[in-house]
Structures are given as C-alpha cells and as structure tokens.
Amino acid sequence: MIVMCGGDGGGPTVRRKSLRFHKVKGSILGGGVCKFCDLVIVLLLGTMSRSSRTLYVGNLPGDIREREVEDLFYKYGPIVKIELKVPPRPPGYAFVEFEEARDAEDAIRGRDGYDFDGHRLRVELAHGGRGNSSSTDRHSNHGNGRGGHGGVSRRSDYRVLVTGLPSSASWQDLKDHMRRAGDVCFSQVFKEGGGTTGIVDYTNYDDMKYAVTTFCYPSCIRKLDDTEFRNAFSRGYIRVKEYDSSRSRSRSRSRSRSKSPKAKSSRRSKSRSRSASRSRSGSKPRPSARSLSRSRSPSPSRPKHVSKSPKKRSPSRSKSPHKSRSPRKSRSPHKSRSPRKSRSRSRSKSLSRKTRVRKLQLVKGLLLQFKSLTDLVVSKTSGDRQPIILPAAMANPSAPKRKPRNRRSETVVQTIYKNPKTYFAFALLLADSILTALIIAYVPYTKIDWDAYMSQVDGFIEGERDYSNLKGDTGPLVYPAGFLYIYSAIQYLTGGQVFPAQILFGFLYIVNLGIVLFIYVKTDVVPWWALTLLSLSKRVHSIFVLRLFNDCFAMTLFHASLVPLLYQKWHLSLIIFSAAVSVKMNVLLYAPPLLLLMLKAMDFIGVISALAGAALVQILLGLPFLLSYPVEYLSNAFNLGRVFIHFWSVNFKFVPEPIFVSKGFALSLLALHLGLLMIFAQYVWCKNEGGLVSFLRSRFAQMRLKTSITSSFPLNKSYNSGSGLKILRKEHIVTTMFTGNFIGVVCARSLHYQFYSWYFYSLPYLLWRTSYPTVVRLLLFAGVELCWNIFPSTVYSSIVLLCVHVIILWGLWSNPPEYPYENDKSQAGKKAN
C-alpha cells in the first residue's frame, strides 16, 4: 500500500507499506497547498493499487464459508477484505484483498492449484474490477497470476466464440462459466452489434471440443452450447461455437482503419468532394440513414465489418454509377463526415449513459476522499494523530450498490431457505424428543449404577460425612460433592423409582441437545444437514435414558458453561464449569485449553479472579465434608490414581492386561497427553501469536509493564487501547476446547461405555474442522459410532477406534488454524467481566 512520509522542509515521499496512510513527520497545514494536493494524489494512487493486491479465487465448493476462505489465505499476510460469491449453481468464487502486493503473490504461488475438499482452486490476480464491468479484455500488464506473476495473459489457438451474453457479464463471469468444460487460460468480453460477445481460450483441444460439442461416448456428456449463463445481476442462454480466425483478422483491420488518422482524413476529404459534386448536380437530400446503408451495400451477403471499411466502398460506387448519384449525398458536410455515428446511435446513447453514471460515481468517490482529508486536517489541528482509513465506498466507488432488502415481502419459506440451520435445529429437537419418549416407553431399562448411586445418597442423607464410608454395590464413592446434591434431589423427586427418573433424564437429554445445537448454530462451522448426526447415536441415547449415569449431568453443565464463553463472560463460565467438575472429574480435561483461552482474552487480574471464583464453588459445595473429614473427601473425590478394569476398556482392549494395569503404561499415556497439549498449543492454538513460548513471554511482559505504569501514574485511555487484549472468535474458543478434550480422550487409559458422552457431541464439530472431504468425515463418524456399539469390546474394535481417533487428530493438526481474534475489535478485558 502507499504511505505518505513528509520531511521537515521537503515534499512528501511515497513508499509501499500498509493499508493505512500515515503522516510520519510534519504537518499538512505546514506544507501549504502543494502538500495537500500531493496527499490527494497519494490517496488516489493507493485506491488504484488495489488491483495488485486483490486475488480472484475460483472453483470453490458451493457450501464454502467466508471463514474457510480466510483460513486458506491468512497465513500469507494480513487480509483487508474477503468478498465471497456463491451462485445458485456451483462453483463459487471469492475476491481476497491483501494489505501487501507481495503477500498476494505469495498466496498465488501457494494456493493456485490447491486441492480443497476435492476442488482444484484457481487463484490469480483480479483484473478489470469485480462487478458490472464494460471492459473487457484481460490482456493487461499485470498478468493473470499464473506463470510469470507480472507478464501478459496467456493465449492459445483453442478458441471459442460465445454469443448471447447479458450486458452485465464480465470476463471473470464468463471464465467461471466456461471452466466447466476445461482449463481456461484467457477470456474477453466486448460489445458488438448491440449485444455482448465473449472469446474464451482453452489450454488444449479436447476442452475446446467439449465446450462446443459432445463426445461420442455411450453416456452423452452435456455441452456448454445453449446453457444458462448466470451472474449476480442477470441470466440468459448462450451459444458457443468455434472461433473463426478470419473474424479476428477482419475485426483488427476494421479497428485499425477506424482508429487511423489517415483513414479518417481520407474519408472526410472524399465525403466533402462527393457532397460538393452532388450538390452541384441539384440532387435532393434524403433524410433516412437506412436508405444510405442499403444503397451503399453492393450485395446482401457482404459482412458488416467489410462494409465499414472505406477502401471497400469506393469500388462499389464506381461499379454502380446510378447509386453514386444518390440524393443522400447532398446532406450537410458535418453530417456526412461521420456516417458511423448514424449507424450506432442507440449503442452510443447506452454507452454515454453508462459513462455518465460512472462519472457521477467517480465524483462521489472524490468527494468522499475530500471529506476524509478535511477530517484529517481537523484532527491535525486538534493534535490527534490518527491514520486515514479508506472507506469501502471510497475504495471502490464504481461498485454497484445493493438495494435494501424488503424483509416484509419475504415469505416464511424463503426465510427458511436462506437460513435453514436455526429452523432445522428446532425441527431436529422436536423429532429427537419424540424418539426419546419412544425409547423410554418401549426399550427396557438396564440396571448398572443406579442402585449404587441410591445407596451412596442414602448414606449422605442419613448424615454420613466420611467419604470412605459412603459405598454402594460398585464400591466407594469416587465423585465430588455436587454428585451427591444432584442425585439426592433426584431421589426426592422420584422416590428412587426408575421410570420417573428416566423421564427426568429424558428432559435432561433434550436440554443438553438444545444447548449443543445452540453452540453449533452460533459458531456456524457444521452445515445444517450435519446437525442430524447429533441425534443418531444409539449409545448416547442409552447412556441418558436407559443407564442414568452421572456423566449426563456433568456434560450438560459443561456444555452450558460454553455458552457464556461465546459472549466473553469468563467469570460466569468458570462458575458453571466448576459446578460440572463437582459432578464428575472428567471435565478437567477441558481445563488446559480453557486456561490458555483465559490468558488470551483476560489480563492477569481477570484470570486470577475467575479461577478464584471456580475454587470458591468447589469449597462451598464440599464444605460439609471439608469441615469433617477433609483428607477422606479430597483423596476419594479427586483420586487421580484409579485403576480401571481391563474388561470394560473400549479403547485399549488390545493391550495385555498386565501392561494395562501397570503404572508405567499410565505414566506413558500421561506424558503423551501433556506432550500433545504442548505441541497443539505451540503450533496450532498460539500460531498467530508466534507460539506458546512467545505468547507467554509477551503476556508476562505486558503484566510487568502494567504494574510499573500503574505504580507511577493512573491508567489512561491510551494505555488501555494498547493493552493488547482482543475479543476471541467463537469458532476459536469452541475448537480449542473440543480439541483439548479430544486429546485427553485419545490418551485416556480406559474408556468405559458411558465415557462416550465425554466427546460425542464434539465429534461433528471436530470433523468439520479438518480438511477431509465430507465422505471421509461421515465414514470416520460412522466408524466411531460402530466401535462404541460393539459389546463387549474386542481387540479389533479397539484397534479400529484408536486408528479413527488418530486420523481425526491428524486432521486437526494438519488443517491450517484460523485467525483467533475478532476483526477490528479490541479491549476484550472491558467485556470479559
């Protein structure tokens, strides 16, 4: 981009730097009118340089989102703007504007030809504008982004002619449409004969033949001839045929002659001599322009471009002398000098109308620029030094403005079609409610831990506070105090009966599903139809309404704690998160990524206060036991050294039992767990901050700087704006939390069947955060579900489950991480409670 750097006495210098225009030294008012004009020129040059920083990205999938486009290109440099265009029929395309031209060149080299979800991307510099362009040719000196990065566009001999294009068609629209037949290396759109015509060059002969005709295969391939052409403004049916080389030669000759000064002067001299001789002969003028063209054409088969040439008209007049004495030639000299204007009057009127509109838009853009300059002068006089930011309307004044949408005229069906995810989530919730009711009514209950839960609750209600004495059929109580409070309330409501408890757990299942659907809809990562996967698990339905495990309450509370995180309510989220930990300790698998997110979004005081609130919840819930038998409570409720039974293991059944129960196996899995967390934090979660180590150093440096400043003088507004705290994106929060928990699940020594609820609701989200094709994602989901429904687990089912987990983890690792912060927002500490 362009930066304005003024010296003390000399004029301003221009250098390429960034998107904003900074006045480094001096004042505009000090330099007089010259510096003011120079700044206007610099702003105009900065606006025109957008073409070297804007990329066209073609052949995108039809279901792509703007966030996925940003994930593809963010690593090449700062992105100014992304314009995603998804037509009713794929493929889609996008325009990506970088701050630096060299970043755009790096993105071309890195992403041109990249295979994205089965689509080979086409990345090149966007020439000729983005919208309703009248141009038309792409033979510019900027190049097309392929091959030399700055040379001319490639041409080939495999050329087709496209007629019937809408007047709003641009070369890029034509190129996108014709890519259905093969690789296009050049496209051009021009006005001819009152219509719009295009020329397309293919890289090989087969693609050209496929565009204009069909192969003689048993299954007939559809050709592009007589197909519907669409863009953002209009549609129409086009005709495609092979390009005739003689057409280009005749067009070039007619253009060269029409543009040659000698040809113009010769036509004028001949018309003067003819009109003078005919006026002396006393001929009467004929006002019709059509009769002139008819009298001049020697034969009806003569092409138009030949009749426009002056050298071809003189022999025809010599051969037909009665036509040479046409009364039409007695018109006034100034009308006979320009016969082409009379034949293209309607076309010139339409072009002049478009020219006037563009001029008005350009004047409007210049007025906006002048307004920004006056604002800059006012800010300079008041002492504020702020960069000039070009508004979107000023950066592209010729872009067509969208008409305001009339929301009242939209029907319910149109609204659902445009945004089906919310309505589909409600429909899915209703359908799953009916399915859950049918399961409770017709599928028999399986007794596993319910009696043990009730026995432990009975001891608590009778006044026992020693955790080592609270036992059931499955052994001593190993859950924190929140578990006792919840199941005591359930026993009070149901009287210890199973069927009323099933109804209560059915409501809990629907509440949990509603919270998860809200998270999915709010983050908009998974397509609407994939939300169905959240209701297709036989094992999860069984865990909730047929087994009545305490994992159901723990995971529901955890999912509820994610909702405040989406709104940057960190203290409230930590309180609910601590309540989930008090039901079952597996929720602590989310603690490492949660702590990292807190360090990103909050200052040191905010992190400490949020952690103190979570600790206070644990103290209050466990207070009756901490006052009586604190050691027994802490050693049983938070026992990290439990050894599980090998028979119930779903993930490591292939490991021999002596190794499975050994301490070395447990320590190796713990080391693997911590190592994977460190690797993901260093190279994925904190990649934008330069890695985990660099991020922690910068955070502690900011904390020391804040402490030193506040000890000297009070905090002012300028320091707050530069504190470095930003608002985290919702997608980054949810992805980091789900990935951290999934790493813990992969490294868990034993996964029992009820543990499937720990990460089932995050599986579709994690699968769509990988770069795998949709078919592979669905196969991985089906593989996980199949392994969890095999009872008892086998060696082969455990191996398959572990392999699927590793494949998903590799997909999360290899996929480029997204930019973690919201755009143009800062000071998240003010909104983070």
Automatic annotation (TrEMBL):
Entry-linked Pfam families: ALG3 (PF05208), RRM_1 (PF00076)
Pathway connected to this protein: Protein modification; protein glycosylation
Gene Ontology annotations for the cellular component aspect, listed alphabetically: endoplasmic reticulum membrane; nuclear speck; spliceosomal complex
Reactions accelerated catalytically: an alpha-D-Man-(1->2)-alpha-D-Man-(1->2)-alpha-D-Man-(1->3)-[alpha-D-Man-(1->6)]-beta-D-Man-(1->4)-beta-D-GlcNAc-(1->4)-alpha-D-GlcNAc-diphospho-di-trans,poly-cis-dolichol + a di-trans,poly-cis-dolichyl beta-D-mannosyl phosphate = an alpha-D-Man-(1->2)-alpha-D-Man-(1->2)-alpha-D-Man-(1->3)-[alpha-D-Man-(1->3)-alpha-D-Man-(1->6)]-beta-D-Man-(1->4)-beta-D-GlcNAc-(1->4)-alpha-D-GlcNAc-diphospho-di-trans,poly-cis-dolichol + a di-trans,poly-cis-dolichyl phosphate + H(+)
Topology versus the membrane: Multi-pass membrane protein
Keywords associated with the record: Endoplasmic reticulum, Glycosyltransferase, Membrane, mRNA processing, mRNA splicing, Nucleus, Phosphoprotein, Repeat, RNA-binding, Spliceosome, Transferase, Transmembrane, Transmembrane helix
Enzyme class: transferase
Protein name: dolichyl-P-Man:Man5GlcNAc2-PP-dolichol alpha-1,3-mannosyltransferase
UniProt cross-references to SUPFAM superfamilies, sorted A to Z: RNA-binding domain, RBD
A single BP term in Gene Ontology: RNA splicing
Residues passing through the membrane, by range: 423-445, 477-494, 501-521, 541-567, 574-592, 604-626, 664-685, 733-751, 771-788, 795-813
Transmembrane listed as a keyword: yes
Annotated stretches, region: Disordered: 127-154, 243-357
Catalytic activity, EC: 2.4.1.258
Basic residues: bias regions: 248-283, 302-357
Stretches with biased composition (Low complexity): 284-299
Family as reported in the entry's similarity comment: Belongs to the splicing factor SR family. SR subfamily.
Domain RRM: 53-128
SMART domains (UniProt xref): RRM (SM00360)
Compartment(s): Endoplasmic reticulum membrane; Nucleus speckle; Nucleus, Nucleoplasm
Molecular function as annotated in GO: dol-P-Man:Man(5)GlcNAc(2)-PP-Dol alpha-1,3-mannosyltransferase activity; RNA binding
Organism: Tagetes erecta
